[in-house]
Design brief:
262 residues, alpha/beta, Rossmann fold, 2 domains, 4-stranded parallel β-sheet
Length: 262
Amino acid sequence: MASLPSDIKAIFLDLDGTMYMGSNLIDGAHDFLERCKNKGVATFFLSNNSSRSVDQYKAKLQGFGIHATDDEILLSTHDLIAWLHTNNVTETWAVATKGMCEMLEAVGISTRSTAPQYVVVGYDTELSYEKISTASIHLHAGVPLVASHPDMVCPSPDGGLPDTGAYLVMFEATTGVKPTHICGKPNPGMILHKIEALGLEPQQCVMVGDRLYTDIAMANRSGVHSVLVLTGEATMDDVASLEEGSEFLPQHILSSVDELLR
C-alpha cells in the first residue's frame, strides 16, 4: 500500500488495542510518540471506551509515561454529550460507570432521573442488575435509547470483553427497543470538529486504530488517511474478507504504531 504523505500534521490514535492492551503498553509506542514530537506532528488520543472519564484516561496514560492534556483526549462520551445537548436532553437514566456519569453530571445532565427523556447506555464495567432492570422498565414504558458507541467487544490480553454493543443486543432482546442514535466512532464528527479547530484539512491527518468497523470506517468517512494496526481486534483475515470498496478497508496496514513515521 502507498506510504503516508510527508506533510502529515496530526495523528489521531485509538487507545485500547492500538496504544495499549489492558495494562500493557504496545512495544515501541514511546518511540513513536517521540518521533511525532520531533517532526512537529500533533497527537490526539481517541477512545470509544466510555467507561473512563478524561481524568481517568489522563491518569492511565500518565502511568505509561505519556503526558496528555484534556484537549488531546477525545472520547465517545464527548460525542454523546454533544448529541444530548443538541436534542435538549437533560434527564437520563444511565447504564454507565461512575466516571462517565460524572462527565454527564458535570455539564448538567442527570444520570439517575426518575422521569428520563432517554436511557443512556455506555461501556459499564460497574454493571448491576438494578441498572439493567430500571433501564428495561423505562424502555418498556416508551423511553427512547441512545448509546455512547457501537463496539461489541473491548479488547483485552485475554480476549474480547462484552462492550456497549453487546449490552444493546441484550436490551433489544428483552425490550424490543433499538437505539435512536449511536454516538462515537465511526461517526466522523469524533475527529472532524477537532480537525476544523486546528485549521487543518482531513488530508493532512491520519487515524490509527485496530478496528475496521469503528476506527477505519470513521477515517474513511471523514477523509483522513486510515491506518490499521494489527495489535488489537482486526486481523489480516478480516481485511481479506472485505469487499472491494468497503468503507472498512484500510488504506495502510502496519503491525503496530512502532512502524509509523520511520
